[in-house]
Amino acid sequence: MTVAGAMTLTSCIGSDDGDKPNGSAGGNYVTGPSGISTVARGERTDAPKLDGETVAGETLDTTTLKGKVVVLNVWGSWCPPCRGEAKYFAKVSKELADAGQDVSFVGINTRDNSKQNATAFEENYGITYPSLYDPDGKLMLRFPKGTLNPKAIPSTIVLDKEGKIAARALVAVNEEQLRSMIDPLLAEK
Q1: Do the bridges between strand 59-61 and strand 51-53 make them parallel or antiparallel, or are there none, so unpaired?
Q2: d(CA 188, CA 103)
Q3: 26: Cβ–Cβ under 8 A, 6 or more apart, which residues?
Q4: pLDDT, tens only, 33-65
Q5: Model pTM?
Q6: What digits encode the pLDDT tens for the residues 152-169?
Q7: Burial profile 2-25: b = 16 or more Cβ within 10 angstroms, e = fewer
Q8: Kind plus residue range of the DSSP H or E element containing 84
């Protein structure tokens, strides 16, 4: 496999004129070898308010989830790596819900021009948690500079129980990586 092919499989990301594909623009992130970045508890910043209509046509405001660990996954039905990681999000969200853990999963569907494609994606991959419908990417632009690269799809951001950004991955993740972002936050007192 060529390097270019490997990059395509890793992320649906574009980069031009010096954009850093990892979305790093400074900040307090420490990136591990898995591509997951974490922020020490005392250095975390507040997540922006993310609200709007879901793919299912309901209203959602993520600020109402404060007190829980919140997993935000940016995805598009057109994105092959998003399809690859979807089974892990479906599995982990179900297992944590069944175990009664204080975790909420919220998708952010972006760049899908119709809700039909997004709905079909959720049905095909067993995604049962809500996804905000964000066809033009405006929700992603609410994040502080350096937090989330709007071109990095898929991306995952995990908020601690205080609604602060604690971890991120600007690439597709597997089950082990996803759990490594969530479990330490569940253990925080």
Answers
A1: antiparallel
A2: 13
A3: 146
A4: 567 999 999 999 999 999 999 999 999 999 999
A5: 0.85
A6: 999 999 999 999 999 999
A7: eeeeeeeeebbbeeeeeeebbbee
A8: helix 80-98
